[in-house]
Amino acid sequence: MNMKTKRVLVTGSGRGIGKATVLELARLGATVVAHDKTMSDELAATYESVRAASPASIMASADLACVGEIDALFERIGGELGGLDALVNNAAMLKGGPLIDLAVEDWDQVLAVNLRAPFLCAQRAARPMRRGRQGGTIVNISSVHAFDPRRNHGDYSTAKGGLQQLTRCLALELAADNITANVLVLGAIATEITPPDRQAAISSAIPAGRVGRSHEVAKAVAFLCSEDARYINGASLTIDGGLTLGFCAHRLDL
């Protein structure tokens, strides 16, 4: 895949899946916007690796729970890159705990980052794509918990379920403008925040016998952002090692 003409924003790319994704896109030649909530050391380290492969790439911070910061992020992207060819809504958060005890402020924050922010970013990315008539791609990162809720994480499951439907609505509304929207549904993926012993415990219950790796998700994202995937729209691609074929994620307490 040649991504040299692509300008791609990946939200939440300081570590984990987001980091693997910006590194893969940069390796393929894309101009990347490496984003995180703050200008952290993690983001700076990721950006240095990205820039080595793609010198025109930029680093940006924005709190996705704040509409004004989202607007400022896209104003900067428009000014420095002239817009985007692809958006990857990867950033996510959860508070956790029983829904009956969850504070409304926590509920609002989780929904703001996990659902409202992808909606707002999609709006702000798609409008220039539509005006310029060049088309584009939106990739949303969801979870198996959108369909199979994890106990004490109803806020996260609800938001991811909404993200599934948002993706389908975007795909339907934007298809005539040559803009596609697809969603990746992730099972257990090894990242820095998952201890090795936890990964081992989870692996025993997955048909593939292991958890997924961030670079495997990154390659799927890159494909969906490429010209090879232009006829894929409104699709939901599950990356879970077969977990949802015969197992319920909530029973495994993933």
What does this molecule look like?
The chain is an alpha/beta fold and 254 residues long. The chain has a single domain, classed as Rossmann fold (3-Layer(aba) Sandwich). It has helices at 16-27, 41-53, 67-81, 104-132, 154-174, 196-203, 214-225, 243-246, 249-252, and strands at 7-10, 31-36, 58-61, 86-89, 136-143, 179-186, 189-190, 212-213, 236-239. The protein has a 7-stranded parallel sheet with strand order 3-2-1-4-5-6-9, with helices on both faces. The protein has a two-stranded parallel sheet with strand order 7-8. β4 (86-89), α4 and β5 (136-143) form a beta-alpha-beta unit. The chain is globular, with a radius of gyration of 17 Å. The two termini are 33 Å apart. The model has no long low-confidence stretch (mean pLDDT 93).
The total tally of domains equals: 1
The total strand number stands at: 9
> Count of DSSP helices?
9
User: Residue-averaged pLDDT, rounded?
Assistant: 93
Read across the widest sheet, the strand sequence of neighbours is 3-2-1-4-5-6-9
At CATH level 3, the topology is Rossmann fold
CATH class value: Alpha Beta
CATH homologous superfamily grouping: NAD(P)-binding Rossmann-like Domain
Sheet with the most strands, sense and barrel status: 7 strands, parallel
**Shape-level CATH architecture:** 3-Layer(aba) Sandwich
Catalogue the unreliable spans: none
Structural class: alpha/beta
Give the CA-CA distance, first to last residue: 33 Å
* H-E string: EHEHEHEHEHEEHEHEHH
Radius of gyration based on Cα positions? 17 Å
